[in-house]
Amino acid sequence: MKKIVTILSMILLSVLCSITTYADSLTGTTHEQGMRYLIERGAIAPDANNQYYPNATVTRGQFTAFLAAALDLPASSDSHFKDVIGSTKQDMAIRSVASVGIITGYEDQTFRPNDSVTRQHMARMLVRSLDYLKFNTTTISKSLPFVDANEIADAHKEAVAIGSALDIIKGDTKADGTYFKPLHNATVGQAATFVYRLMTIVNTPVAPEPVPTPAPEQPVTPPAPSIEPSGPANYSVPTTKNQAIVSQQSFATLEQAMKAVQTNNQFVIDNKNARVVYMQSGVVFANQYVEIKLDSGKDIIGAAANSQMEYISSNGKEVKVSFANQRGTIAISDKIELVPTGLIAERDHYTVNANGQLVHHLVSDLKVGKTAASYVVGKAPAEMKQGEKYYSWNGVFFTNKNDKNDYFDYYNYYQFLPAFSKTNYTAKELDDYILNMLRNLEKTGAAQYKDASKRSKLVGLGTIAKNMEAKYGVNALMVISLAINESGNGLSAKALEYNNLFGLNVRDTGDQKDYFKTVEENVSVLLTKYWLPNYIDATGSFANGAIFGSKYIGFNIKYASDPYWGAKAAGHYYKIDNALGRKDAKNTYTIGLTRNERATVTSSASGGSTLYAYRNKNHPVLIKNDKLGNVYEIFADKQTKDYRVISGFIAKDAVRVIKTTQ
After folding, report:
1. Architecture of the 590-657 domain
2. pLDDT value of position 107
C-alpha cells in the first residue's frame, strides 16, 4: 500500500506541475523536480517570504526529514539521540528514520542534526532506504569507478557503489576521470534530487497508453506584486539591470518590502539608515572589523575589514552568513554592507598566471570590481586553466564561474603542512635567502626599503628559527614565512621598535604587551606561549589544526581576522622553497584530515593509553608511517614537558589522506 500511495503522489505532482500557469523561483532550475516532489510531500516549506533556498547547504536533520517524508514512515516515540528530544517536525522525522535503522548517529548518542551532511553519508542513508523498501541490491555492481575512491571511508564504499550504479548520486567528471568527492556537502536542491531519484527507481510506474492531449499552455511569468504602502515610505525596493537601478517601489513596513523582492535583481533598503537590509543573494562585505556569532552558540570568529562573506539570509535586523563555510550571524550596522548580486561587478577571485601559479585577486569595491591587490598562493592545481576566473569561499573548494556546479578541491601543500614538520634547508641557506631578498627590495629604490638589508629585523632569523626548530620541533620555514607576512619584511614599526615580527598581542581591538627585548625572545614567546600550548596541542584553547590554513581550518581561524592570512603566509613559504631549489616540495610529507569528530590518538599501535581526541573533523594529521596495518603512526599534536615531539597512533578509517599541490 505504501508503494502505491507513493506512486500516486508522484503522478499527482507531475500533473500539478504540468497545469501550473505561472513560474516561480524554482521554475526551470536544475533541481525543480526533486524540490517540487518534497514540497508536495510536505518535507520542504517556504519561509515567510515564500522562498525555498535550494542552494543552501542541507543539514543532517533536513536530509533525514526528506527521507521520512518520501518513505512515508510511521511516527515513533523511541528516544535514540540525546540531542533530538523535542517535538518539532524534524525531531519526529529523525526518530522515525532511526526506528527503521536508516540512521544510527554517533558513538556519544548524538545525531547532530544541524551539521552539514557529507555525500558519503547521504549515500549510506539512501541505500539503507532501499533496504527498508526491500529493493534488491545484491546483483548491483559494487565497483567504485571514481578517481578519489580511496578517500571514501570503508564503511561507506558499498553504499556509494550502489548509489552510483543506480545513478542516485552521480560523480563529477573531469579530464582525468570521475570524482565522487565523499566529504563534500550538498545543497537542499541536490539532496531533493537524490531522494527523488531514489523514489523514482523504487516506484517506477507502468506507462499508460498515450492519449492525445492538447499542447499545454505556456507558463506566464507574473509581474512582481505591487503593494501599495499603507503609511510612510520607510523601505524601498529597487530593481536593477546591468548594475543600474531601473525602477523602485516604496513600502511602509519591512514585511511588505521583503515580500516584494522576487529576483536577485531586487533588494530592500532601510530608508532611515540608507542601507540594504534584505536581498535574495549577494555578498556581505565588512567595512571594518566585525565579529560573527557562530550558529553553534559557543564561539565567535573575527572578520577583518574588507572580508567578503557569503550571504545566506536576513530578517532585516541580523544577517546570516557563511564565512569560509562557518555559519553565523551578524547584526546589521555600519560595520557591514549587504551587496546584492545585481550590483556586483566582481568579487575576490583566482586566476592562473603564465608560470602556472595560482594568483588570488582581492577586490575592495564589489560594485566597481577592480583588483585592489593580489598575491601568489602557490602552484595552481591541474583543474585550473589560464584565462579563466575561479571562486572559493574557503580556499579549498573551488568553482569555475561558468559552471557553478563544477566543484573541485585544492589543498596547497604549504597551507596544509603541519607545524611539526621540518624544513630541509640549513640556517645558512635561510639566512642567505633573507639577505638576498632584502637587497633586492633595496634595488627597487622605494623609500621604505632603504638600507633594508641593514635595518630589517629578519636579518639572522634563519639561524634563530633553525635553533628553535631543534629545540621545539616546529618547522623553521613556517616561522620565517609568518614573520615576512606579519612584519612587512621585518620593516614594520612594530618589528623595528618592538622586535615584534608576528603581530603578537597586536589586535583589532587594541594592542597589549607587544614589546620584546630581542627577536629571539619574540620567536620563543610565539612558540611557547601561543603556538605550542594553544594552537598546536590538539586540546589547546584555539586548536583547529596545526597548519597555516584559512578561516575554514587551521591557525587562521583564531590567529588572525584576515581570512587570507594563512594563504599569504603559505605563499611566502612556496616562494622561498622555489627560490632555494624546491627541497621541501621534493621531499613532501603525507598529510591527512580526520573524517569525524573525536577521532582518538593512542600511545601505541596496539592501542595503549589515549593521548587525546581531536575536537573536530577535518583536523590535519602529519603521517609518519603508513605501514602498520589498520593504524597510522603520526606526529602527535602534543609534546612532552621538555618539548619532545612524540608519535601517536590513529585508526586509518578515521583519516583520509589528501592530495596536495606543491
Report:
1. Roll (2.30)
2. 74
